[in-house]
Amino acid sequence: MKEKKLILNRWLTPDNTELISRHRHNFVSHIDKVTKQEYFIDGGTSYCRVSNPDGKMVDCCLYDDAPFERLRKALKWGTRGKSGKDKPKLIAISELTTDHIQAILENADMIHPKYKEVMEEELIHREIIHRNPEAPTIVEVIQELKLHNDWRRGEAGEMTDPTRLGIIIDTAIKLLKQYKRNE
Question: Does the pTM exceed 0.85?
Answer without folding.
Answer: no
